[in-house]
Amino acid sequence: MHNDLVAALDIGGTKIAGALVDGDGKILVQARRPTPATEDGESVMRAVTEVLAEVGASPLWTRATALGIGSAGPVDAAAGTVSPVNVPGWRGFPLVERVRLATGGLPVTLVGDGVAMTAAEHWQGAARGYDNALCMVVSTGVGGGLVLGGKLHPGPSGNSGHIGHISVDLDGDLCPCGGRGCVERIASGPNIARRALEGGWRPGPDGDTSAAAVAAAARTGDAVAIASFERAAQALAAGIAATATLVEIGIAVVGGGVANAGDVLFLPLRRSLREYATLSFVRNLTVAPALTGTNAGLVGAAAAAALGRVPAAQIPADTAMSAPTAL
């Protein structure tokens, strides 16, 4: 039996996490640091190095044969660089090279965080068994990834499936990406909360103005809070329907903090999807909440690294990382 492990990094605007992951997707060692997102690029890299040092201090580290990175994007997998919108100190930052040096030359695979989440959901989550899927992270931003023909499809740069920056409102608000009316500008957690506040919603005594607080208000019947989630659901539905029409996915999996709103999000999302996904080959599209939870980024980064080291023909579509030999 193989005892190899895969190391993983999950890099976002609020946290940097690292782990050692086994062939069953179990996280054996984990470390994390807050992302110094407002500081310079080297300060952010120091946090990455600290996470790697903590994970690398485990005696299990010697069994690591590869390292996967799921990073906020955009990323450039071909160049090995990252330019996260929410980490301004990293623009074209050579993350793959720096991580390879920090780990003594381990093979490194870089994908966007949405692609990493997709790898996790296809391996052991809600997209398991589907040959064609879109998986989404709806949180501070909106990202995504694709499974096509039974295989993870990161695309040449590692960003395929980045649904958050599909425009669904041609004359909509400017998005930080430079576009207008992007799904993210309407459906992300901060924008759900912003719209509710602009519409007259007010937080409770605790002063919580997060999307979670807006969801709680919606559950009590607050009309403004309900309307903000319905608008977010409409934007998500439009983006999902466009993706399904383009590449014929069978399921759209929605994860991230905003998905924790449950029926406040999913009921209007399914209702809106019926209005947008009208062609015969997309009408039966399934929408489901993600199952892999907060560790999806780490597990998916490990899966992407393992897949990158084995010819695709050797990996069954529905058991991508289930056998230790895949590592």
CATH superfamily of the largest domain: ATPase, nucleotide binding domain
For the terminal residues, how far apart are their CA atoms? 11 Å
* N-to-C series of helices and strands: EEEHEEEHEHEEEHHHHEHEH
What topology, given as strand order, has the largest sheet?
A: 3-2-1-4-7
CATH class of the largest domain: Alpha Beta
How much helix, percentage-wise, in residues? 25-40%
Structural class: alpha/beta
* Overall number of domains: 2
Family: Belongs to the ROK (NagC/XylR) family.
Protein name: Sugar kinase
Organism: Streptomyces niveus (Streptomyces spheroides)
Short description:
This is Sugar kinase. With 327 residues, this protein is α/β, with parallel strands linked by helices.
Which properties best describe this structure?
five-stranded mixed beta sheet; 327 residues; Nucleotidyltransferase, domain 5; 2 domains; alpha/beta; single chain; 12 strands; 9 helices
